[in-house]
Amino acid sequence: MAAERKQVTLTIDGREITVDDGTLIIRAAEQIDTYIPRFCDHPYLAPLGACRQCLVEVEGQRKPLTACTTPVGEGMVVKTQFTSEMASDAQEGVLELLLINHPLDCPMCDKGGECPLQDQALAYGPGGSRYVDPKRRFVKPVPISPLVYLDRERCVLCARCTRFANEISGDPFIELFERGALEQVAIFEDEPYESVFSGNVIQICPVGALTSAQFRFKARPFDMASTPSVCNHCSAGCNTVVQTRRDQIVRVLAADNAEVNEVWSCDKGRFGQAYVQRPERVVEPLVHKEGEFVGVSWAEALRVVVERIDAVKRAGARTAALSGGRLADEDAFALSRFARTVLGTNDVDQRMRAGTAEEDDILAQVAGSAGTSYGELEAAKAIVVVGSDLQQESPIVFLRVHKAATRRDSVVFEVGARATTLARRTRARSVLCPPGTEAGVLLGVASELAARGLATVDEGLRAAATGPNATTLLDQSRASAGDIGSLADALAAAGPDAVVVCGDRLAQSPGALAAAWNISFSLGTRFVWLPRRAGARGGLDAGLHPRLLPGGRRVEDEAARAEVEQVWGGGLPAAPGRDARDVLEGSADLGLLLLAGVDPASDFGDATLGRRALDRAQFVVANDLFLTDSSRRAHVVLPASAFPEREGTLTDWEGRAQPFAAAVTPAGVSRPDWEILSLIANEVGVGFPRKLVELQREMNALRRDPRERSAVALPPPHLRRLDEHHPFTLLTYPLLLDAGTMLLGATDLLETSEGAFVEIGPADAQRLGVKAGDRLRVESACGAVEAPARIGMLADRCVFVPANNHGARGLSMLDAGEPVTLVTVGKV
Amino acid sequence: MSDTATATVQETKVVTARFDGDGSLDAYLASGGYEGLRKALAMSPADVIEAVKTAGLRGRGGAGFPTGLKWSFIPKDVRPSYIVCNADEGEPGTFKDRELMERDPHQLIEGMAIGAFAIGCTQMYIYVRGEFAHAARVLERAAREAYEKGYLGRNILGSDFDLDLIIHRGAGAYICGEETALLESLEGRRGQPRLRPPFPATHGLYGKPTVVNNVETFACVPHIMVQGPEWFRGIGTEKSPGTKMFSLSGDVERPGNYEVPFSTTARDLIEGLAGGVKDGRKLKAFTPGGASSTPFFGPDKLDVNMDWESVMAAGSLLGTGAMIVFAEDACMVRAALRYTRFYAHESCGKCTPCREGTYWIENTLRRFEEGGGREADLEIMVDVAGNIGGRSFCALGDFATAPVTSTVKLWRDEYMAHIKQKGCPFGR
User: ipTM of the assembly?
Assistant: First the structure.
């Protein structure tokens, strides 16, 4: 990718080494395993040179130099503390100074045992202190958020935390205050430190100055067992380390993977693991008998389920299997296989909303494809984000786009109804448009690209972009010609070096996904289908889709089906299945509905459909962690193991499959979903892999080579119909920290959630005479929400309601039959 | 200022020549003001820089870096570029820039304007020390006058050269006299020094090429333009041409600013212009150039010539030319404590050696004054000073060590007296 960099040869402690020009001495030394001590230096933060611990001797220099800020030079002779008295003197001097005001309370400090300052003092520090005067004292600890505690006496003022906030996450309001010996990390009196990445400052703190509210005084590093894992809270694929003590999860750390999460994680991934070991977990199979659940043995539960399957098969009744994008790859594959080979149906879906033909066409190409990587995203010259609030829906992707925008000068645009944090923290431009009109904006961009003579613009796209309704929809979007022009310019300038990122929820906006795909296809840019949930990409690849088999093979494609039949056995159903909405609408006919890790009663994009459907279904089997609104309505509940309780693989949004290991003993007699399905299948008498490796062998056998992309058919533009009775369009999507089941028990984390609110734009606020904090009522044909108002950057005549916050549930206003939800907004 | 009748040595008034006037534009023009700018505008920018180089003008802020050379570092192809005047005069004992701004504001503006023309910038800033409320008001008024009369603004003096000036008041931090911390502060950030390289000449204010010069440096420029570089070279010494303002304070009869050629001795300044040690007492010590990095001199150094090279050869630094005089009954331990307290208070906190080291030394010195000093502390203080000097992020840490190391070396007996008498032998 980058041009070959100039090489420079130098010696460090007499050893010759050749490195890239521009490499810092401290990094060059690492390459030959020479560790120069440091506190402020951090490989992902800009060089600072503040702590002075890494001073080394460079021949020809009168004074020692900081290895963390000095780039190597040709022929440079560096001597570290191992060979230079100047360096070791300087380092010991700095260490002594760092310790004069340090409380030396290691025995009661959380960092004890994994503290660079402690290690450094042990290795090189003197046995006693020459300093006899009083130490600097501060009140401590000070909570700087519900999750992070600050001990200023332990702080070495390395500024890693403040630089993280500044450079990496872009969150303001944690800063260094005062000066000299009184310098201290602090937050503003009137502006709280609000960040969904706050836990990172704890992890990168080189001393015990920033500690975790959850982990304080819980365990010593050497008393814990560490298990490498992959976070399952979203599709980012963060590598983590799950740390346990006496089989209890006590801490989750971000693990280092430069290709994925670098060394970061979001607070949900770090602090949101309480759900795993809650007393509310379903720990044994439950069968509904005479109005209540009765705990039974696995044998008994399997007998009930198998009898039901046999009966349904004999009667020829319909069956369906639903999931929610939360499964590990093996579970998803097992469910896809189970639906097709055991239940004999293609009525399988993992979306909690209706599907569309354009989405199917695109997913068929995304499934099993190589995809785009984090590195490619970061290197993009232009990034266009449509239908995603990155910081809330894919926080680590947000960090990469933030990095691209702030460090690599990528041009970033977002298209949607609400200006997100991305626009506030970078120079990203928000092209605001009401929900449902995104296609208008994108077709406007396509038409600009065509007008600029970009001959590659696909004919279908060109035709659609210049059609009469496209122009009307563009008018309805009220996006300015300037915005459209700049977006087209940025894409045209970047060409194949652009990346188009589409959140999976964009499929709800008619025509938008197809327009984005076709623009990307026409220009040859990379395309990112960015699902919110952790298992969605793996589920797609596995064929948790009514029209797709593993690897994006189309159900109705005989040759493709035959490939799958070679592995799974013959007789796969050939007719495309129904999507989740149609399954639920028609649930009365279902002889068996299998739910695996999904809660349609709460999560389906409709006010009441999920509940009604489950009440109507003849027989529901739910594999679940908890008794949710849905599993409560099931006839049999089978206890599934949570992620940290089992091993498996998880594919992130890039299409990168990453293995994870079991960290704790499963709750009760719970089992992984794939194993539950395998047990049932084998009881039914259908051959089904009994071991994880057998399942994985099948998965590998069904992987596909990369295919050529093709344009997809654009649906006719769907015009917006505002009327005087419902003058607003509703935007709703889930925020990172909400009332979701996987945040059960994470009380301190939820204290940092945004709570109940509804948000409108400044013009509408003025029109309605609304001030921030006024109580607003938002009402659709299906439901209503009342919550305090926020004024934000929103498209005109739009209102944002979080999908699932306590006190403000946007989902309660949706009608699954309507792509766009019209609402009224008024002061209470 | 001075009463030359009783002095054998006379001042050479160049930048202080108009100090008896009212500082107005009219008075400035009446005494040949803005002629230097007019002359410069008729020259090519390169020739202006060449003239300043030929004159041998060196920065008056303390380091003595050649001004013309600094201006020539500004790349010609990067725009915008900026000129910033460092008027954050915070060096202990230094009060020359304040007088230059209060008494002759147009001289500064003219000097900066010439510099701006030379490097091709159209935006200038004066970063005035926050406490200098009066100086800032005088500058504001002068800038208004200059705008009204066309010495600032569009097409100045009928040329096609546009020039704007912003006067920015600091917020009370000594470290902002360090040029990169000054730039941080000017950009609205916390005043802490930046990592160098890159240097301000290429990555200065808002990341653009920037010249930062001291008030007195700019004040010399119009005179060089009007009277010519050769005239300037004819004053002072070969390597330190021109005149220098010295701020005399402490135990002298006539404290104040005195402008003399660089070829003047400390004795001429202290005993001549400033009237000698107050009340006929004997001299114990003096600083040749402010507090920063300038080890104290004893009476044996009175005949050192006050130019950069000679002062350095004698074991100290010329710095800003602030001469603080201590009489025989001054306590040098207390002097060291006060200097160190200043640095501990003004340390920005960024780097460990300066932040923690000054705190340590201040605590130790206070213990001496309070009667708790130990002989071992002397060695420890000098050692700690060695851990600060040359190891801190910016020069402030280096500066902070000189008062301690030089007093321990020259007046160890006073420290011992503090230990023996369990307190300060000088009373007060």
Answer: 0.92
